[in-house]
Amino acid sequence: MGQKRIAWAITGAGHGLEECIDVLLNHEHVDIFLSRAAEEVLGMYNMDARISVPKIRIYQETKYSAPQVIQLFAGTYSVLVVAPATSNSVAKFVAGISDTLITNLLAQAGKSRVPAVVYPTDVVPAVESVGPKGKPIKVYPRPIDLENTAKLKTFPGVTVVGDLKELEAALAQFA
Question: How far, CA to CA in Å, does 159 sit from each of 31, 53, 114, 131, 175?
Fold first, then answer.
């Protein structure tokens, strides 16, 4: 088998989306997994064309059973990256709910012992972000969102990063 790939999951988060796409485009062997919400948000932020490049395989959420996750068990991937990760996805990860492509990916990465790197949108009590129309907005994560991020940090095999520098450093270990 050739070079192992990076499985990169994108959720419906706008915060950090462009920066995460910049990071993933710097890697050669990447497959992108899009939640339904990610497809919507990529369009809202005019980012969908940026990831449509020949070197990247894109998987969309089409079936409830998420058959794409079997590739984790096949040894195709060196790491699963979920970046950016919404508070909804993080809450589902923490609760053990795997009812979407992205939540299934994290669950199956754990079961197949593929390391995961998660970059949640909610890591600090207040953050400046850019809205879909390019205007700056202030976001104040709820206490439950920050608690879920803290709980996710305790999961075996999961590295939670708080910024792009940490994301790059974590990726350097696996890519």
Answer: 19, 28, 12, 27, 14
pLDDT digits (tens, 9 = 90+) for 111-134: 999 999 999 999 999 988 888 878
CA atoms of 135 and 132, how far apart (whole Å): 7
Whole-angstrom CA distances from 18 to 3, 22, 91 are 26, 6, 23
| Cα separation values, 26 from 20, 71, 115, 131, Å | 10, 22, 20, 24
3-state helix, strand, coil in the chain (%, to 5): 40, 25, 35
Q: Is the pLDDT of residue 64 over 70?
A: no
